Inverse folding.
């Protein structure tokens, strides 16, 4: 057991799915030609003035309310000053000491235990541009040159800052998963980490078990997936523990996570708030949301993931794991409901979604919105199993092959001849052959060793390449074994 306790806080940046940017009318569409979604406002040209995006502020309030935050009666935009090529104005419009949403919390489940993670604040800011460092490493160090795309500059960005209440990489993983599910359910962001619309920075320190004071904090950046957050934190815990055991000091700094090596490396010394020379944004008025406006936003609140999981589990008698996958996003619930509409029993739908569908999505690196096998095609495959036209094992193989090939599972069943063999005479011939070549096992069964029966069943299924009807095999095999 380690002598140290990890103290972790996460800063999650979420790009909002508004049609236009935070302070101008430029589109927020991902993937346009570089520097085509820009204007004098988001490029910070002299004489241009920002105008707040009302919808973005409503999205921020919705996020805050979903995280049990208090919506402040008075909030203020500030200028966060720093000089970097992806900042065309050389400052970022953000919120400093007067954020809009404060003092919330998020409950996460870890090993059947609920952990409450405090939410310090959720505040609004504008996103920066995107730097592309051209070179072998893709990092600024050693790059031949850098390119800047300002299409992302000015997109509305909400930063959700947790309290340092997380104690392990697993807790961090569950926190991010739950937060991402909430944001997806609210419809405020597509939360695609691979496209940068959800990004996470992790702050971590170690302290002796039982100590009240925090250790020296290190910030880790370049965490491009929930798995990356877990890997980076695991590495940092080990690195900091070894340093402390050796009597060395942990340096307060910002570190870069390398996806290929699974290690972190020094990026720069950690900035303090005064380094940014915050001051109130002179071109924007304070936000003072009236209670009526807050109530209007609250009325838009959908059923949140925790309540949705509990309802679906109770209504359909699902396990917590099955309900968690089914209820993980609105799209997942839609897929589940589509299966039910096709007549698929709820338990079968949940088992296949949390099993074969999840496996195919993970292998392809896709979300359920991108599922290549429709609910209707999966329902027809499950009907084929129920009707005895295909075995369970063959159906699973057909599903995975269909997902890879972009075909329907029943197409694969037909192409590869995976139909179930139910003909008595065909199965009897295989059973007789298996019994003839396994006389010793036959005698052991007839002497009372019932467990040998499973072996013989396995041999028949192997001989038929798993396509024989298990029910017919069981019946015919027992008939032949009981014959004198």
């Amino acid at each position: 057991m380690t002598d140290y306790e990890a103290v972790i806080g996460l800063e999650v940046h979420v790009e909002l799915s508004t049609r236009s940017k935070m302070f101008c009318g430029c589109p927020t569409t991902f993937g346009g030609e570089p520097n085509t979604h820009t204007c004098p406002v988001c490029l910070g040209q002299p004489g241009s003035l920002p105008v707040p995006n009302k919808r973005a502020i409503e999205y921020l309030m919705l996020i805050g309310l979903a995280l049990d935050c208090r919506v402040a009666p008075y909030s203020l935009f500030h200028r966060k000053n720093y000089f970097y090529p992806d900042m065309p104005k050389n400052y970022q419009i953000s919120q400093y000491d007067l954020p809009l949403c404060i003092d919330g919390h998020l409950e996460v489940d870890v090993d059947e235990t609920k952990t409450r993670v405090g939410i310090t604040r959720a505040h609004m800011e504008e996103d920066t541009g995107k730097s592309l460092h051209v070179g072998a490493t893709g990092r600024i160090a050693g790059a031949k040159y850098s390119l800047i795309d300002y299409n992302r500059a000015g997109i509305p960005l909400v930063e959700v800052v947790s309290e340092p209440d997380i104690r392990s990489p697993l807790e961090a993983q569950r926190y991010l998963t739950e937060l991402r599910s909430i944001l997806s359910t609210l419809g405020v962001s597509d939360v695609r980490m691979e496209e940068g619309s959800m990004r996470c920075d992790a702050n971590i320190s170690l302290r002796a078990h039982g100590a009240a004071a925090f250790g020296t904090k290190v910030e880790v950046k370049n965490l491009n997936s929930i798995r990356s957050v877990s890997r980076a934190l695991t590495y940092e815990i080990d690195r900091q523990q070894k340093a402390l055991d050796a009597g060395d000091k942990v340096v307060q700094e910002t570190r870069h996570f390398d996806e290929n090596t699974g290690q972190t490396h020094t990026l720069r010394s950690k900035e303090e708030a005064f380094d940014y020379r915050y001051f109130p944004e002179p071109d924007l008025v304070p936000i003072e949301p009236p209670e009526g406006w807050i109530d209007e936003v609250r009325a838009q609140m959908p059923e949140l993931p925790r309540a949705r999981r509990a309802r679906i589990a109770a209504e359909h008698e699902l396990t917590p794991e099955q309900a968690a996958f089914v209820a993980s996003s609105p799209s997942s619930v839609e897929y589940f409901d589509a299966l039910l509409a096709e007549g698929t029993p709820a338990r079968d739908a949940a088992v296949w979604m949390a099993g074969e569908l999840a496996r195919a999505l993970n292998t392809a690196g896709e979300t359920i919105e991108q599922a290549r096998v429709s609910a209707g095609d999966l329902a027809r495959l499950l009907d084929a199993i129920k009707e005895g036209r295909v075995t369970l094992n063959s159906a699973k193989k057909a599903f995975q092959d269909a997902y890879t090939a972009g075909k329907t599972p029943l197409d694969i069943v037909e192409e590869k001849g995976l139909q179930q063999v139910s003909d008595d005479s065909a199965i009897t011939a295989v059973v007789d052959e298996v019994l003839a070549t396994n006389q010793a096992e036959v005698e052991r069964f007839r002497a009372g060793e019932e467990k040998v029966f499973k072996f013989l069943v396995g041999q028949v299924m192997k001989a038929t390449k798993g396509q024989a009807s298990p029910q017919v095999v069981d019946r015919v095999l027992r008939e032949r074994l009981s014959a004198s």
Remarks:
- The chain has three domains: 4-297, 305-415, 424-482.
- Residues 226-245 form the longest helix (20 residues).
